[in-house]
Amino acid sequence: MMLTSLRAPLAALLGAMLAGGCASFDGLAPKAVATDPAALATNQSLAGARLSPAVWPSAAWWQRFGDPQLNALIDEALAGNPGMGSARARIDKAVALAASS
What we know:
Layout: H1 2-21, H2 42-45, H3 68-79, H4 84-100
């Protein structure tokens, strides 16, 4: 009784394994090519665009509000913020610890 109830799932599993064995992974390598930014011809498409310094915020954009409390909060946040190299080192350390256990 139990053997007959397992026949259909076992046949399906065997069929899937046989079909999977026929799969070819040839030619599945990435074929992406980096585009040269100079080839994008943005000076043609953006030729009529009027850009002013007000479009992009300055590096210290918060100072234009003239709020000493905001200045102090931003200074505190920047002081406790790790740089990209430090953040990458933390990630590498965590990956190494995870791989070792």
